[in-house]
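Why do we care about 3D structure at all? Because function follows from shape, and shape follows, mostly, from sequence. That is the central idea of this module. The next example makes it concrete: a single protein chain, its amino acid sequence, and then its structure expressed as tokens.
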Amino acid sequence: MSLTTIDMTRLNLLRGMRVLDVGCGEGRHTISAALEEEIDAYGIDLRLVDLATTNVRWADFATDAPGALLVTRASGFALPFADDSFDRVICSEVLEHIHDFESVLKEIDRVLKPNGLFAVSVPRYGPERICWALSRAYHEVEGGHIRIFKTKELDTAVRKRSYERLSKHFAHGLHSPYWWLRCLFWSRGEQFFLCQWYHKLLVWDLMQQPALTRFLDRILNPLIGKSVVLYYRRLGDTSSVLDETHASDPKT
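And the structure:
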């Protein structure tokens, strides 16, 4: 499986849950969720080619995986699911592509059960601002990023819908220098030798997970992590709130 941004252990997945991945792409989080626990994992996306890739990747795991997976073509503006129908919702690296991202958050709120958990990630402001400064083409390509979120902006947009923030972390510290190189040498393409070398390093890290790069990633994440990841609980009946061992002070 490809590298995930959401930390699945913070979602406290339990047998029988229904999990939705909004903008699932090629299924990295949808499949990861189905591999974690005996759950029903749903993924939606508009790109049929990405959904097809998800199904191909899932075929390698389906026989032995504890969970089940279903992907379908749908828009985040009109999720084809009933109110309060999911225990967990994931939306990773999606909202930065959408003009009216608040409407997507509204739909997520509609389908997430009270006390359900919501995990969202977007590119982090600092590293993303450097990418935009180095290359206009980086964010002007078709389907590219149309905004740079400040964490407070996204946090406010979620919490105003009666959500409690549980924790926050940064991810992919090793990836930021790669994208800075790509942007700096955009006209030379991803085959430019520096970009190609760094990409090989990232693939090696993903496949082998050596102690050195894992250590470097932990050190770099708070400093230049490419993504910011936020975890929330939709407020509801407190009698059914699950114990969250990963919860932290929402002010952090």
